[in-house]
Task: structure prediction
Amino acid sequence: MPLLDEYEIQEMENRICYAMEFTYPVKITKWDDGFTYEERGHVHYLDPLRKEVRMVAEDGCAMSIQFGDIVAVDVERIDVAIDIRQNWPAG
Result:
């Protein structure tokens, strides 16, 4: 299992909290028995007592991932372009 330093762990926690606060989708890469797997979805809850992330996957299934198994977190922010001319009064 890859070793993460305190800065990397804190950065992943920050990303998870950011995604949870703004309901952005995330891609969590987890380590399992020598292989990495990606899970995509929305973070529902970060449980500090059980040290796990609870999330709803893209297919709607609920899952929990042990924080110690996570090796990367990417927030997949959705940028929405707004055309201000669309609602601009004519004239």
User: Anything to note?
Assistant: The two ends are 64 Å apart (CA to CA).
